């Protein structure tokens, strides 16, 4: 990889709320690994997991259509996002719009109401896939000036970062659905230890955990238990909703199941920022975790 | 004296339902490929909380059990984990079928009071009003759509979480974030809804 790779960057709504620390740490590490993130102009919500129910199927797809139309105006470069739900919706919507002539016509009909159109052949990619396929682990290792020796990390991938696209051509064929390696590879490139963690692709409950936590707390309990059994100091994840769910419900789980979990849950990009010797607050955004990753903070360069 | 009509396939089951699903539900055209192996239900993280697992839902669709399918909580407990979809040996997009059935259940009045339908409404309100999801307002609106007392109860139960989010700067206290061209987005969504209504030939 020689020159910088430029992307239209779609941060997604959680970047302005619960997953600010994903956005901040991604923007911080990007230049170090040869990536230029040009924010997608005036991007809108992707529709998440319930947009089709609240707004109907076509209006929901039109949300993606508008983002793609804005991306088309921005240039030929690929669209990249760090959010699992944004990726799922935008990638799936893009593939459908590109392959289904009738849908493309309908979406463009809707877009014309705001003088927009999408007829390009853009690629919508997940940041993890870009790091695996375009950046590569060598480039990550090169940037590590502060190896995280002795830190035990449970790599929790979750669902939509890999399912249902990580083993498809459109999804870049970057890892498996059931037992992906990429997150552990990130951890080890940072000099930390990736512990065996057998629930790495189990579901945290997703948006059902937000709506009706009582139905899904046991799922998060199992994930935390597996991380504790593996003696992990910290859980890493690529997914905004996984990060928030697994972190914020620990009190409720302790109350319901009589457990004593207090395990920090951070993004892989926060881990990288620390390993790259960057600022623990400004770049790694470690202060944004409600359960502070103390051991990682001690390893950080001040 | 008139005896009650005996229950027959004709009045208990809607034999046109499978065809309707095939024509109107995303992925429904693949239903006939299902061999009832159960890999989907065996993979489902939340099957224990469902009235019927995904395999059974497919069997029920094919049997024409319209009301049971559209009012089952399966549609609302599915977390979109896509485990079933990637494991199905017949390549059936199980998640899409269940998720689109959820939208149909709302459209045809089977789910007015379901928690998740109320959540979806709060969500769409924010998305269409601001172009963005405002996590605070969606959650608050959703809690109170469950009733005033339930709204207070849930708000209090999650107060500590909310304060933690405010403390770490992950929940802001000002105005909602809004896209610049909200006028354009509103026009797009209105036109999309119009097209969807024009195209609708999916009388249930
Ligand atoms: S895994 Fe596929 S074929 Fe097997 S029961 Fe489920 S939908 Fe049918
Ligand atoms: S996508 Fe839904 S139905 Fe399929 S396994 Fe996951 S929760 Fe179960």
Record the strand order, biggest sheet of chain A. Answer: 2-1-3-4
Mean pLDDT across the residues of chain B is 86
CA-to-CA gap between the ends of chain A? Answer: 30 Å
The succession of helices and strands of chain B, N to C, reads: HHHHHHHHHHHHH
| Poorly predicted residue ranges of chain B | none
Tell me about the largest β-sheet of chain A. Answer: 4 strands, parallel
Number of strands of chain B: 0
Number of individual domains of chain A? 2
The count of β-strands of chain A is: 8
Radius of gyration of chain B: 21 Å
Written description of the protein model:
- The complex is a heterodimer of chains A (302) and B (204).
- Chain A has helices at residues 20-29, 51-55, 57-74, 84-99, 101-111, 127-135, 137-143, 182-189, 206-211, 217-229, 240-248, 250-257, 268-275, 294-299, and strands spanning 5-9, 35-39, 79-81, 124-126, 152-155, 193-194, 234-237, 265-267.
- Helix content of chain A is 44%, strand content 10%.
- Chain A has 2 domains: 5-126, Glutathione S-transferase Yfyf (Class Pi), Chain A, domain 2, CATH 1.20.1050; 146-290, Rossmann fold, CATH 3.40.50.11810.
- In chain A, the strands form 2 sheets. Chain A has a 4-stranded parallel sheet with strand order 2-1-3-4, with helices on both faces. In chain A, strands 6-5-7-8 form a 4-stranded parallel sheet, with helices on both faces.
- Chain B is mainly α and 204 residues long.
- Chain B folds into 2 domains: 15-107, no CATH class; 113-203, no CATH class.
- Chain B has helices at 9-12, 17-24, 39-43, 54-63, 66-70, 74-77, 83-87, 94-107, 115-130, 135-145, 148-157, 159-167, 182-199.
- The longest helix of chain B has 18 residues, at 182-199.
- The complex binds iron/sulfur cluster (2 copies).
